[in-house]
Design brief:
The complex is a heterodimer of chains A (about 500) and B (about 160). Helix content of chain A is about 75%, strand content about 0%. Chain A has about 500 residues and is mainly α. Chain A has one domain. A two-stranded antiparallel ribbon of chain A has the order 1-2. By secondary structure, chain B is mainly α. Chain B has 2 domains: about 60 residues; about 80 residues, no CATH class. The longest helix of chain B has 22 residues. Classes of the chains: A mainly alpha (about 500), B mainly alpha (about 160). At the A-B interface, α8, α9, α19, α20 and α21 of A face α1, α2, α3 and α4 of B.
Chain lengths: ~500, ~160
């Protein structure tokens, strides 16, 4: 493992990669700060650029963007009470009241230190957990993988849909349908191409991500008439206050950080749970741990109330990489986008990545850590300046997002058809967004579609067409039980509990 | 059962799934693959049924969280104009070239969204695209097709 860490450090600390982490963190912070635009949009916009680099550099850039976007989301939560991402909603509970009390600088510093500490502890867990889990997952067979993929989709649908389980499942099916367009991987038989050459290679992953996130988010902002930058104009960004944290506050954070990190990491590893649930749970847990006097301060600018969700959401972000790197199965929308990018590089994440491409495996882990250091020493002092981006009018912001989306696809294919297809998907996604149809399950399903079909093919061929493979192996059987419990729980919550 | 927009979307999804299922059955597989436990149309057929199942449930079951989207508050005009601008941009980018089509796309998009400060409109269109092109084409050696600039002799 030490050798691997050194390989990772050597790759991640090369001049080019260090520069990419910095650029990624900076760009991610700016994009993540803009309300409505989260890490998925940030990563999606970066994908066409990453394809110009070698896989390790491309992934390092994306990891930087990821952490930068999460940090940027906290900034807009604290400064203007408009979380850039759902994972930072809990941050605004105590961060925004602190900012209103003239302690915005301090709130940003607490958020940055907590994120850094949470990320550091989670990175250590990741270093320990990932190689061990990689070894265990080598014993997984096709039925287990097929079961795990269904579990991943069901879990994302259950947790990300906020009570709209059926809508989320419809989005999963739509994602799988889009993934099935093009030639069949084994027989090369064209499917759903409608005799169009443009569809014979299937629909590009970048196209779907750009359309469903970057483009449709921009169109949603326009159609809803929201102006995310309006609130920013009302606050004086030069009056952020000191970023110094007192001894007493450091002591309070020292108690909160370890427990929130552990909780965040565990929640992050679970498929579908992610940073949002981790931050809310950590906030709730912290409220139960503190004294009655401190409990009264929650929601009014509590240091622990701010530190807990920030620690947990960063720890969850690191935890989400565990199933991606060890099983090749993303547990969240963001890691699904990263899986798509990895596949684009010709790399198949999974248990063998640890053995076949150790430099990529370790450099991603190490760059995540370096990204957090960069965020702390580079972004924190620059926050008063970066925050000015919040005041960029949407009249300029939206066309820029659309321009980057169209250019990204144009550079990849030089094909009008792809641009029209992207616009079409973006329009449909915008309508679906208006009626609360979640997009992360669609992306996760789109990325997993090919792998899912492949594993189902192998399982059915081995069992000679019988579906008994779902309960023949104890592991597959356990996974299926979890899926049934999850679906049952969703049905109970949605339909039965409300009627009682 | 109350008919609302979500039910209509679910119904459209049901029809799409039915069409998908029909098309999946039409996939021509090799003769020796017809009776195989798994062939090119197996997975799509399951998907078609799954789509019909979930959308069917959504249509039949009552809405737990009805969503009210009031069309009065939606900015259709701006959105449609922006989408049309994008379509025209997509149609012209290869023929007219990256520089002119992108710059004009940005100019019109800023204008349609309500920007009236000509100075900023011009700065964030033509010079911005020129710098962007220089970074991509000049520094990163990413190929950008631009017949117009090639004709004028600016681009190689």
């Amino acid at each position: 493992m030490i050798e691997g860490i050194l390989i990772g450090l050597k790759t991640a600390l090369s001049f080019q990669n260090l520069l990419m982490v910095m650029i990624g963190c900076f760009a991610g912070t700016i994009i993540g700060m803009l309300p409505g635009l989260g890490p998925m949009t940030a990563i999606a916009l970066m994908i066409p650029i990453t394809y110009g680099f070698d896989p390790a550099t491309g992934l390092i850039l994306m990891a930087g963007v990821y952490y930068g976007a999460v940090f940027g989301g906290s900034t807009s939560s604290i400064l203007i009470n408009a979380p850039g991402v759902p994972g930072t909603v809990a941050t605004s509970f105590d961060g925004y009241p602190m900012a209103q009390q003239g302690k915005a600088g301090k709130a940003l510093a607490i958020a940055a230190y907590s994120s850094f500490a949470g990320g550091t502890i989670a990175a250590i867990f990741l270093l320990i957990a990932a190689p061990s889990l990689s070894k265990v997952s080598l014993s997984f067979r096709s039925p287990d993988y097929f079961g795990l993929m269904i579990l991943g989709l069901t879990a994302v649908a259950a947790f990300s849909s906020k009570g709209n389980f059926l809508k989320a499942m419809m989005m999963c099916v739509l994602g799988l349908m889009l993934a099935s367009v093009g030639q069949d991987t084994l027989s090369d038989i064209p499917r759903f191409t409608f005799n169009t050459m443009n569809l014979s290679d299937g629909i590009s992953f970048v196209l779907v991500v750009m359309a469903t996130f970057a483009m449709s988010e921009a169109l949603t902002i326009i159609i809803k008439g929201n102006d995310p930058t309006k609130a920013a104009k009302q606050i004086s960004l030069t009056e952020l206050g000191s970023i110094k944290v007192s001894k007493e506050e450091t002591k309070q954070m020292a108690k909160t950080i370890p427990r929130s990190s552990i909780l965040g990491f565990i929640i992050g590893v679970l498929p579908g749970a992610g940073a949002t649930i981790a931050s809310f749970l950590a906030y709730g847990m912290e409220r139960n741990f503190v004294s009655n006097e401190e409990k009264e301060k929650f929601g009014k600018g509590s240091v622990q109330g701010l530190s807990a969700p920030e620690t947990a959401n960063n720890a969850a972000c690191s935890g989400a990489f565990v199933p991606l790197l060890t099983l090749g199965i993303p547990g969240s929308g963001t890691t699904a986008v990263m899986l798509g990018a990895l596949l684009g590089f010709g790399i198949q994440p999974g248990p063998r990545l640890y053995e076949t491409n150790p430099e990529i495996f370790w450099s991603v882990i190490m760059s995540m850590y370096i990204g957090m250091v960069v965020l702390l020493i580079l972004n924190l002092p620059l926050i008063p300046y970066i925050a000015r981006i919040l005041a960029v009018p949407r009249t300029f912001l939206i066309p820029m997002i659309l321009f980057f989306s169209v250019t990204g696809i144009y550079l990849m294919s030089f094909n009008n058809f792809d641009i029209f297809l992207m616009i079409g998907i973006a329009v449909v996604a915008t309508i679906l967004r208006l009626y609360d149809f979640p997009m992360p399950p669609l992306i996760l399903a789109f990325v997993l579609g090919g792998l899912m079909e492949e594993n189902l093919r192998r399982s059915l061929l081995i069992s000679d067409g019988s579906w008994s493979f779902l309960w023949d192996r104890p592991l597959t059987f356990c996974i299926m039980i979890v899926i049934i419990l999850l679906v049952g729980w969703q049905i109970y919550n949605s339909f039965i509990k409300k009627k009682l | 059962m109350k008919i609302n927009s979500v039910k209509i979307i679910s119904l459209l999804f049901f029809i799409l799934s039915a069409f998908y299922l029909y098309t999946a059955h039409q996939i021509q597989v090799f003769a020796f693959d017809e009776g195989a436990p798994f062939n090119a149309k197996t997975f799509p057929i399951y998907l078609g049924y799954a789509g019909m199942f979930f959308s069917g449930l959504k249509i039949i079951l009552p809405d737990q969280k009805p969503i009210k989207v009031d069309p009065k508050y939606l900015e259709f005009k701006k959105t449609i104009l922006l989408v049309l601008t994008m379509i025209i941009y997509g149609a012209t980018i290869l023929k007219v070239g990256f520089f002119l089509s992108t710059s004009l796309f940005l100019v019109f998009s800023y204008y349609f969204l309500g920007e009236r400060r000509l100075k900023y409109i011009l700065i964030f269109s033509f010079p911005f695209v020129a710098i962007f092109m220089y970074l991509l084409h000049g520094l990163l050696a990413v190929y950008l097709r631009d017949p117009l600039l090639k004709y004028i002799g600016i681009m190689g």
